[in-house]
Amino acid sequence: MADIRIDAVRKQFGAMEALKQISLDVRDGEFVALLGPSGCGKTTLLRIVAGLETQTSGRVLIGGRDVSTLPPRARGLAMLFQNYAVFPHMTVRQNVAFGLQMLKAAADRISRQVQRSAEMMHIEDLLDRYPAQLSGGQRQRVAVARALAVEPAVLLMDEPLSNLDALLRLQMRAELKAVLAEAGTTTLYVTHDQTEAMGLADRIAVMHEGRIVQMAPPVEVYRKPRTVFVGGFVGNPPMNFLKLPVNAGEVRLGALTMTPPNRVNGSVVLGVRPEDLELAECGFGFRVQVAEPLGPHILLTGEAEGQRMRVAIPPDRAVRAGETVMLRPKLAHIAWMDAESGLALEGE
Amino acid sequence: MADIRIDAVRKQFGAMEALKQISLDVRDGEFVALLGPSGCGKTTLLRIVAGLETQTSGRVLIGGRDVSTLPPRARGLAMLFQNYAVFPHMTVRQNVAFGLQMLKAAADRISRQVQRSAEMMHIEDLLDRYPAQLSGGQRQRVAVARALAVEPAVLLMDEPLSNLDALLRLQMRAELKAVLAEAGTTTLYVTHDQTEAMGLADRIAVMHEGRIVQMAPPVEVYRKPRTVFVGGFVGNPPMNFLKLPVNAGEVRLGALTMTPPNRVNGSVVLGVRPEDLELAECGFGFRVQVAEPLGPHILLTGEAEGQRMRVAIPPDRAVRAGETVMLRPKLAHIAWMDAESGLALEGE
Amino acid sequence: HPARAQEVTFLSTQMRPLEEAQRARTQILNGAPVKTTYVPEEPPQLPVHLQADAQGSHTISLVGALHGEFAPLVPMGLLAPLDDQEALLKQRGIPDNLATLAHLGGEHLMYVPWMQATYIMAASKKALQYLPEGAKLETLTYSQLGEWAANAQKATGQRVLGFPAGPTGLMARFLEGYLLPSYTGGTVVNYRSPDAETMWADFKALWAHANPNSTNYNFMQEPLLSGDVWIAWDHVARLQDAFRKQPNDFVAFPAPAGPKGRSFMPVIVGLAVAKDAPNAAGAKQVIDYLLKPEMQVTTLRVTSFFPVVKVAVPEDLDPGMTLEAQAVAQQQAAPDAKPVLLPVGLGSHGGEFDRVFTDTFQRVVLRGQTVHEVVQREAQDMQRVLDAAKAPCWSPDPPSQGTCQVK
Amino acid sequence: MKRAVFGVGLIILCAWTIVPIYLLALGALGGSDVVYAWPKPFLPLAWSARSFASFLAIEGIWPAMLRSMEVAVLCMIFSIALGAPAGYALARFAFRGANTYRLLILVTRAFPVGILALPLAVTYVRLGIYDTALGVALIHTALALPFAVLVTSSLFLGIPRELEEAAWVFGCSGIAAFRRIVLPLALPGVAATAIFAFVISWNEVFAASVLTVRHKTLTAFLLSVLSESPLQAQLAGGLLLILPSVIFIFAVRRYLFAMWGIASR
Amino acid sequence: MSRTATAPSESPLPLREGVGGRVSRRAALRPYILIAPSLIFLLLLFFIPLVQTIALAFRTSAGAGFGNFGKVWNDLDFFDAVKDTFALVVVAVPVQLALALGMSMMLRHVRRGRDLILWIWSIPLGISDLAAGLVWLAILTDKGYLNSVLFQLGVIPGPQSWLTYETPVVLFCAILTAELWRATAIVFMILVAGVQLVPKEFEEAASVFGATAWQRFCRVTLPLLRPSIQTALILRTVLAFETFAVVLAIGGTNFPVLISQAFIWQNQNQDYGTAAAYAVIVMVVSLTATAVYLVALRPRAGEPA
Ligand SMILES: Nc1ncnc2c1ncn2[C@@H]1O[C@H](COP(=O)(O)OP(=O)(O)OP(=O)(O)O)[C@@H](O)[C@H]1O
Ligand SMILES: Nc1ncnc2c1ncn2[C@@H]1O[C@H](COP(=O)(O)OP(=O)(O)OP(=O)(O)O)[C@@H](O)[C@H]1O
Ligand SMILES: [Mg+2]
Ligand SMILES: [Mg+2]
Fold first, then answer.
1. What residues in C contact D52, CB-CB < 8 Å?
2. pLDDT of res. D261
3. Which residue among C158, E3, E131, E221 has the highest number of C-beta atoms inside a 10 angstrom radius?
């Protein structure tokens, strides 16, 4: 049992409140991705779980045990640092073996594990180099290998693949997933790559300004953002938001009339993802400003109802900048938000 | 005039040849993205251009002048380091102002530029902090701001946005593009984010194992990969490659018969991007193993002709793992490669 | 340097302790006919400074130092002959033997004797009760001294006899000027005589009652004052603090006598003029001033050095000083007194000569080597030193033809 | 619990350094009775600044004090100016003769200066810096140089080269990058070097007394005579000489921590 | 330096700028330009007298030769001096290093008043040898403070001698104690300066991977601190061979060390040749020790220096 329970943790750096009352549960063996804008407190949270930073208040429990006052080494976890922190005075091999040596593992187990993690990270040829002789991405992979080699019960990873190319990242991601699932490792994983979060995570925790604003399975986060922020942050390109006036419980958008959930007056925000907008005969007008062919789709950027909007259309439709096209949202995929609080409206 | 001309540059680290005869031209004001797998020599190349590393042989010319023997400061460029290299003993403000101070810029120009770059990088609130008090992404943005503040004629950037979240990256990318285009800055930009490369670059140089394997505008790189490597590396998910036997100049794929360009015997490689495969009545069989809903599309992973393949289909098609579906490639988007050399076949 | 030519820079290895130097400036030199800058100097630096000075900086005019410190300066050519001062010596009544010494074995007068001192014994009054039956301080012998120390040790459990055998202590003087001549009647010639062997054996026995800290003591006044040592031998200047501070607690008395008499050694401080002195004339004026009887008395008050000129010791002397002065007088006037002259012809080999004595002491007394062998061996060393210096014998050894020879 | 053990450790170590100084002060200020008392009192019974005052009244002590200051400051400047570039060379370049150079500068410490007295003095007379503050400062610099070179070089080694490279790229010359990036980051080492130079110069007695006659530094002035003074005066002199160094260390101590907590990459 | 050949670019390498032969030659000169001022300085002010003095060691009245070294060899105290010198250096330097390391590590965990503690711990640095000798003599002498405490605690019946030839072990310990007190601060200060440049992240990484404080210290901090440790060791060792004022004050003539012999031969015996010979021996010994450190603590090939 190695679940992580973060209980009302706050962290203050001087006057600056980096974490505001964070509570979070990661179940045993679960893979939770932490997603959030730069500077929102992800690293800080990870460091508190690892015991490298002391929370201002709150508790951290691992496997049901309150570890708040334990030193990092007694918490039985491994961590990957955002800036790698590979030991410059050790070869790659020594770096990767480090955690196991600390656990006093047998020599043959160490060498087996080192070999395995190195192969997984494609650094088996670099084992006898020093970090200074590695490229940035290679160094990062050493750090990942070092964390994986110990086969920890709890693994904290801070942007582990940020310096790798897409292809490698794809491979690593798959291998990571397999390895961690097999070992049943409880993982808290910071990433800014949403595809990664979507592909790997059992649940995603979206952080914003020191708070967790939504914690849910990937699809739910994607489909049912709890706030405007989540909708705008998750998804690439992000969700579009149109602020629309409500008249007698109804909203008009071009030729369309829609009914937002109950209890709304004044105005409401309609959220819709670029891929959930279709070219249609009848709908609302969208003036295309930029059309970017992005491979699997074409991304249109333009204006509707005087508000900025992005639309993804299949690559075979020829749309030019300057044109005005008619769009309609897939009704099932519309998210309604309160115009003031930015919170999702219930009862959709 | 600040074009960069890299002329037959080689770099040897002891026995290891990091750069093998690189030649590359970046035109004045052009934005060239360097794309390549981890450890292929991108950073090394940038460092040689900056004068931080001495090439084993070859020359570097900037603005037509051979700068091979000049110290970095005499080369009139700015650089963003992969691991930031922000000065720990200076505040963010001092860091950003550094380059301008070295140029002996007037105080008001400095403060204006600092403000501008800081705003662009969204770090205007952090100006009086020390780097140790910043998050990873914030530090990276400081480094970018520092490089932009000097308005250099030549800008070298080594993965400048790798530690930023998608949304921020999107914004920064747009602003970078605008600012650099306006100033006419010649830019050499290392990235592992293809969307970034595609979106920003006038041309993309794809590097592989110390060589430049293709240098062309983004669409061409995407559409007409010069080698199997480029096709497999660029695009996310990458291009699919099917090795097929050639019979009398013709290739059969399921129910389809295609004609690869001339002079092919034995076998040939057919390259096709996942989004260039359509579900069809009549085509070749594809056994779906994994179906991942990824937002704008569903990614299918499976097998065709006993070879691994990925397919992107519109999100509204319901395909299950285990099913076998019929696919056909868009003929115009097929890339033919030599089965042995991996080079693209001409005369398509 | 015009200003410098007006004044006299006076380099001195004596009167160095802070307060003494201060008094030298304010009580002695302030009345000098020429403005005098008094610079105390550690003895090892003296030749260095004079040599550097002679090479170019030319600052120093007057030098005050011990007889033994002047000796090496002569072969280096750092001193100006003072033959024009011979008259002054006569005029002020400086004893002939001092005047002879001041020629340093050569033709010219190299320095003018300035003040003198010697070494005596000091004891805490607490120790007097253990004085052996029949022994008197004024006529003490070395064997009585041993007994005395033994008695005291038996009674108190403490070894209360002390010698200045530390790194900068003057133990060598004790051996060469007091102990050895008292047993053998000479310093050099009888170095490996049976008498000498007896002496070392006796001294080793005596040392059993000596405070083991003796090898750390440089100045005996401190252990006397702290009470670690009750009976001690040292230079009068190195005992003065005890006598000045607690004149009622200590007694001063002459050095003990051995089978060949009560040997003792003088200490002579002289004044010399540096070669090429910037202000030789001024220096000589200062010499004249310092040799005035009043100044000699003032000097006695300030230091514990006694006048070299004829002058009555004043009544109102510091009580501690008076104690010392009495002991010195007693020592000189003792019926068995045997003055031992300072080495004259050793030149720069004086240090090595001393080293022979301390090595012998180390070997015999501290390391317990066989007396006979040590004495034989060290005698050879002694001969080597004498040969190198080509020094003839000096009193109390019988005069020699050519280099002095150890028998 | 751990915290308590730690605290006790700190206190013991502080006591270990402070108590002897306290005892020195006790001896120096406690009057002559304390010096020779048994058993010795541990509390100041009768403070008396008499021996102190008598020091300060000595003719020439103030000029000597000033001269000492002058020499120490010059020595500090010279050793950093000469030592830091050399330290940088050792840290950043692998050049033929680097180790020979290391040994060479150490010779000044490995060979007792005291033994050099005569030729040293003669050399200084020839150079015309005999009996000057400059001359003494120079020889003190020679003594402090190994500290300056080795200490700064070991600190420069700890400074990531990338930071310097960044400075170059932004238009710094080698010297400017050194001054603006390397030196500030190595400030603790520079401060330590300054302290060493100051203290070495302040306490150095041998060269100072050999190379001066009339213009002695305070230490040469006092220490050369202390050994013959009564014990209490020795203690007082010892204490008096400690003060400036201790005050100096106190003044620069915060530079020793200049990089505390900042210097992460 | 054998590093040049094996080291790839991250170990110190001069040729950062320029290409090929032309400029690299100038770049190769750079380190020499940087060390030149100090070399010229030493040459002018120090090496001339040094060479003259060394020459003195090889000159006797009989001409050039090893006569003075013969005298040293026959010196009664020579072997004791060698033994004592090495005993002191071999014991004192490692203990000082350990102590200073411990102190600088402790300082890292001090939350408040760090600079005050630093200051207190570095006070002995400001104390002259002579004063240090005095202090410890005052403490350790028969009627010193130590005995006063022991006496008042009833451990000893009265004054007790510790510093005589009769108690060589205690004497050695006393000298060692005084040396530790006096000279640990130098090592400490060098380490304090160095410790700050060791990024915290490496220790953090180690602690997350289960390293105990001790393991972190041995496996991470110590190697990263190596340049400072090397410097501290070299300087401290060279200085340890030079220590004598304290030794003389506490040990008297019972604890001769090489350097005190040199001074005794120079000052008391006024035999400059033999003194110079002693000094040459001291120099050779301490430079040999330095060379050993330089070799033993050099970075391995490829490792960043
Ligand atoms: N000092 C060195 N010694 C030996 N090999 C080195 C050294 N520096 C870099 N290399 C090797 O040279 C190759 C190119 O390194 P470089 O840093 O240029 O890669 P990169 O393309 O920037 O990779 P990444 O995307 O991971 O940062 C790598 O394989 C690396 O291991
Ligand atoms: N030592 C510190 N002192 C003051 N503020 C700090 C300190 N460390 C971090 N912060 C601030 O706390 C906030 C959270 O930092 P944290 O490193 O956790 O961000 P993050 O989510 O990891 O960001 P990124 O994705 O950029 O790495 C940031 O705004 C940062 O500026
Ligand atoms: Mg972070
Ligand atoms: Mg790189």
1. none
2. 67
3. E131
Q: Which two tokens stand for residue D98?
A: 């680097």
Residues A145/A90, Cβ–Cβ less than 8 Å: no
How many Å apart are CA B304 and CA E30, to the nearest integer?
Answer: 63
How confident is the model over C353-370, as a mean pLDDT?
A: 92
Q: Which residues of D touch C19 (CB under 8 A)?
A: 54, 229, 233
User: ipTM of the predicted structure?
Assistant: 0.89
Cβ(A236) – ligand 1 distance below 6 Å: no
Sort out which chain D residues have CB atoms less than 8 A from B130's CB and list them: 262
User: For all residues of chain C together, what is the average pLDDT?
Assistant: 90
Reading the block at residue A332, the tokens are 């099932």
CA E169 vs CA C172, C385, E148, E163, E237: distances in Å: 27, 36, 21, 9, 22
Nearest CA to ligand 1 atom 14: B41
Contact E35 D85 (CB under 8 A): yes
**Helix/strand/coil percent split, chain B, to 5:** 30, 35, 35
Q: Quick check: D119 contacting C, CB < 8 Å?
A: no
Q: Report the phi/psi class of residue D248: left, alpha or beta, with left for phi > 0 and alpha for psi in -120 to 50.
A: alpha
Surrounding ion ligand 4 within 5 Å at CB are A 135-136; B 43, 82
Q: Across the beta sheet with B4-13, what order do the strands follow?
A: B16-26, B4-13, B57-62, B65-66
User: Where does the pLDDT of residue A295 fall: very low under 50, low under 70, confident under 90, or very high at 90 and above?
Assistant: low
Q: Cβ separation of E251 and C165 shorter than 8 Å?
A: no
Interface test with C, best of E84, E247, E253, E264 (most C CBs within 10 A): E253
Contact E220 A50 (CB under 8 A): no
- Phi, psi torsion values for E51, nearest 5 degrees: -65, -40
Q: Tokens 């010359």 map to which residue? A: D173
DSSP letter at A271 equals E
The amino acid sitting at B97 is: A
Q: What is the arrangement of strands in the sheet containing A267-272, beginning at the earlier edge strand?
A: A256-258, A250-253, A240-247, A267-272, A335-338
Cβ contact D230:C241 at 8 Å: yes
- C-beta of B135 in contact with ligand 2 (< 6 A): yes
D contacts of C304 (beta carbons < 8 Å): none
Q: Do C55 and D35 touch (CB under 8 A)?
A: no
Q: Are B222 and B198 in contact (CB under 8 A)?
A: yes
> Phi/psi class of residue A248: alpha, beta or left (left: φ > 0; alpha: ψ in -120 to 50)?
left
The pair of structure tokens assigned to C147 is 């007994």
Q: At what angle do helices D98-110 and E272-296 cross, to 10 degrees?
A: 140
The residue written with tokens 């579009």 in the block is A240
Residue that the structure tokens 């008498």 belong to: C195
Q: Does A130 touch chain E (CB under 8 A)?
A: yes
CA distance E123 to chain C (A): 26
Chains in contact with C, counting 3 or more C-beta pairs less than 8 Å apart as contact:
D, E
Ligand 2 and B137: CB distance under 6 A? yes
- Residue among C380, D244, D241 at smallest CA distance from E128: D241
Report whether D222 contacts D203 (CB < 8 A).
no
What is the arithmetic mean of pLDDT over A304-313? 88
- Identity of residue E207: S
Find residues 7-66 of chain B whose CB sits inside 8 Å of chain E. Answer: 13-14, 51-55, 57, 59
User: To the nearest whole angstrom, how far is the Cα of E165 from the nearest Cα of chain D?
Assistant: 23
pTM for the full predicted model: 0.90
